[in-house]
Amino acid sequence: AQSVTQPDIHITVSEGASLELRCNYSYGATPYLFWYVQSPGQGLQLLLKYFSGDTLVQGIKGFEAEFKRSQSSFNLRKPSVHWSDAAEYFCATYSGAGSYQLTFGKGTKLSVIP
Amino acid sequence: DADVTQTPRNRITKTGKRIMLECSQTKGHDRMYWYRQDPGLGLRLIYYSFDVKDINKGEISDGYSVSRQAQAKFSLSLESAIPNQTALYFCATSARYNEQFFGPGTRLTVL
Question: What is the mean pLDDT of residues A44-66?
Answer without folding.
Answer: 93
